[in-house]
Amino acid sequence: MGKIDESITNLTNLRSLVLSDNMLSGSIPHNIGKLSLLEKLELHTNLLNGMLPLSLVNCTKLQLLILRFNSLGGRLSDFDFSGFSQLTKVDLNRNQFSGVLPKSLFSCRSLTAIRLSRNKLEGEISPDILELPSLSFLSLSMNIFKNLSQALNILSRLGKLTTLILNGNFFNETLPASGISGFQELNVMQLGDCMLFGQVPIWLMSLTNIEHVNLSDNNINGKIPGWLQYLPNLFFLDLSKNLLSGGLPVELTRLPALATHQVLDQVKNDKFELPMFKVRLHGSSWQYNCLASYRPLLDLSYNNLSGDIPVEIGNMKSIQALYLSNNYFSGTIPSSISNLTNLETLELSHNLLSGEIPTSLTSLNFLSSFNVAYNNLQGSVPTGRQFDTFSNQSYEGNPRLCGPPLQKSCSKRSDPSSPPSGHKKGLDSEMIYGPLLGFCFGFGIILTCQLHCMLSERTILPRWIHRYFIWA
To answer: Is 424 contained in some domain?
Structure first.
């Protein structure tokens, strides 16, 4: 806690200054440039404010500049990065920098990773970024950038780019359907939270090394293309919160990386140039240090998909998370889902599914999250193993479901070949008492009519009495 003491700048032989996660406040010492031998400056996850000190340009041997998760601000283009010829990574994520991308940053030809996400940067991505031949990691998410088509055409020419995160920019633009080539080394593409219009672009089919695609929270319409099955390494596909229609194509269940463990095991275990942070994935947040730390996932929730869930879904044996909620899927829950032995999350709520919950799902030993709420399911809730850990919220909105953890108990079924006990007795009672009750009721009507007539000759009986009397 506290502030960074200015006296630290007297340690002129210092090569590494790491003061992260200390709740430090105030500004970065304005004389930090006295540390001319400094190679690593890591002050992330503090409460620092103010601008980047101008004297920092004297730290010409700087290789790592990690200042994420602070409240630093000012126009980033006012700072001169051009003297950092050895700079390889710059991380200013989650600060308050504004203005356009600094042109001087693109003169740091040793850069391999840039993260400027969650700031207030704006404008367009300049072709000057192509001056960074070694850039493999670029995250500019949650800013105010525009002109997506130009950005993709430029960035696709970065030959070593493996990770591209552009979420939360280019609002209400159109996702280019074609005309994008390159991205031959790209493993991760994130273009979520942009409210983009268009369809799933066919140029994705040429990204043979792609492993992770996030196009969630957009206005993408049309059908899910079957050609996605030809992306051999794709194991993470998030198309949630769009306007997709049609069915779940059988071809999607043939994604090689989700169908066989052998393909998934080939996913690169290399660490990201910078750790990736997922702030929100269905209420949770995680830090990812390598691509292999992502769960194999298919998320199609919050769309307009309909029809049956194909039984071939059981072929996706590497998948760990399956989200199909908030659609219009009908039919029964395929029992083949029990083949997904690595499944940890199964989300089927808010659909039109009917029938019973397959008891075979109890064999999914790793299942920790299960939700079929608000469907048309019936019968008893499976019990045993993981299913004994799920609350009634997993099943609510299905009035014909019964059994624990629901309060509604399951009644025993009777033999349809013989009437239930008491049925004959009830019939006899009706035969005896029915005519007697009818006679009494009719007699009462006649008596009432006579009383009314005696009271007044002008009294008009209600219409229902006339009808009943005539019918009688």
So the answer is: no
